[in-house]
Write a structure and sequence with these properties.
alpha/beta; Rossmann fold; six-stranded mixed sheet; four-stranded antiparallel sheet; binds adenosine-5'-triphosphate; binds magnesium ion
């Protein structure tokens, strides 16, 4: 049996809708994802997918329930950089002043690790894997949307994460590019045995994961 990586138990999230009222975004959400497993979360815009994904990684508070990653409780603020979890976002969030290679090295620098030859070699391996070698020393503004998202994928793999939280990583791309990037992401996750939770509006991508859920009216419903 594969090791359980992340468990979420009875998560509930409220937001203030007026001074006196609060609305429940979702309630009693349970999630379990094991090593090498993949999961997709679909749902209408505003259903709370991003909020849930951020909560799972400790970037957003929950109002009740617990989240545990590799036997470590996750709270917002207490874990600013959870070792073993990486993110990919819809809008890439690359640093425009830095080259493609330097963008990959950001997590290493943020974690206070030394950028030695071994680290640089790993970054070049990832760039090669993602077909980005020739762009290594270019600035992000010289790349297309699909190429920029590949850089963001490379950056996510830089610290050898055990789990990637991906929030609509192909949401800003045209259909063909979106398909190419999603397949590239799935295959690199498989190659490195990296688990992932993918928030997507694309049901075809969701069907390719091990566990496919829909977030509807505050409940997480299993579709596969
Ligand atoms: N800080 C906040 N305060 C109040 N309401 C919020 C806050 N953050 C998000 N919301 C509300 O919570 C709901 C869910 O937002 P969320 O971004 O999680 O949706 P989503 O499912 O990711 O949507 P999309 O598919 O458009 O990205 C929305 O109605 C949003 O307005
Ligand atoms: Mg969202």
């Amino acid at each position: 049996m594969n090791e359980v990586l992340l468990t979420a138990d009875k998560l509930t999230k409220f937001f203030a809708s007026s001074k006196t009222e609060r609305f429940c975004l979702w309630h009693d959400i349970d999630i379990e994802i094991s090593e090498g497993e993949s999961m997709a979360i679909c749902g209408e815009s505003g259903s709370g997918k991003s909020t849930l994904l951020f909560a799972l990684g400790g970037l957003e508070d929950v109002d009740s329930g617990t989240i545990c990653f590799c036997n470590q409780m996750i709270y917002r603020h207490s874990n600013p950089h959870i070792s073993g979890i990486s993110y990919i976002f819809q809008h890439y969030y690359l640093i425009e002043e830095l080259s493609v290679l330097e963008n990959l090295l950001i997590p290493v620098r943020v974690m206070g690790k030394k950028v030695d030859a071994c680290v640089k070699n790993w970054a070049h391996c990832l760039l090669l894997e993602l077909g980005l070698e020739k762009f290594s020393y270019q600035l992000p503004k010289t790349l297309s949307g699909g190429e920029r998202q590949r850089v963001a994928i490379g950056r996510a793999f830089m610290m050898n994460p055990r789990l990637i939280l991906a929030d609509e990583p192909t949401g800003s791309l045209d259909e063909q590019t979106s398909l190419r990037i999603a397949q590239m992401f799935f295959s690199i996750c498989q190659k490195f045995k990296t688990s992932f939770i993918l928030v997507t509006h694309n049901e075809n991508f969701a069907m390719q994961t091990n566990k496919y859920y829909r977030l509807e009216q505050g409940e997480l419903k299993r579709c596969k």
